Amino acid sequence: MRLEGKAALVTGGAQGIGRGIVEAFAREGARVAVNFGRSGEAAAELVEGIRARGGTAFAVQADVSSGQAVASMMERVLDELGRIDILVNNAGTLSSSPFLDLELGELIRVFETNVFGLFALSQLAARRMVSQGDGGAILNLSSLVAFRPFLGASHYNASKAAVTALTQTMALELGRHQIRVNELCPASVETGMIRKALQDPENVAMRERTIPLRRIGTPEDVAGAAVYLCSDEAKWITGVSIFTDGGLSVIPPFGPPS
Known about the structure:
The chain has helices at 16-27, 40-52, 67-81, 104-132, 154-174, 201-210, 219-230, and strands at residues 7-10, 31-36, 56-61, 86-89, 136-141, 179-186, 241-244. By secondary structure, the chain is α/β, with parallel strands linked by helices. It has a seven-stranded parallel beta sheet with strand order 3-2-1-4-5-6-7, with helices on both faces.
């Protein structure tokens, strides 16, 4: 198993992409702390299933936009697991607003979760990894919109671009401690964030037409890349952005192939 015995924390781990990563990590032998915000029942059900299959997991509630909550969560993780080898910053929030109507308070709210929380938790995890002395892996969930923004979400696009800049800077500064920092950039993955849009057959058909692999992604599609980047198989990889998007990022300006 590629993550045998590793201690991992996955934020936003009860649903969507986070849940897929938690399940994949557990199958690969990691001991997993499953962070959740409001999805307590889903987190409990996930943990119970992992334990029933002989794995090690526990749920920990925390609002990652709160510095105090993040610090308390890290203390709990270290108490339960004794160390931290892998941090996956998956928790995020999304809303829509035209740029001309966007209120500063909404921009701040999105940045508090998507950027400030990620920064605070990464700093705490990295400091612990440095003191442990044997490196570690931090994986951030950015998005294709960090490079190719979509309409009506300037605040979300900007927050994900900030994640990309943080990922690269952290990789530069933490490499001397053998701490690797990478990111995944998903697009059109079937999660709660876009589930409403996927109820519209025309929307689904439009998405599938523009994706070279001709289908909407699943959390499992992203989880495989997460396992790889957090395993020793990727021990010479840091500072990279992997697009888990079915090829959407390579669509030419004049449209998708027929």
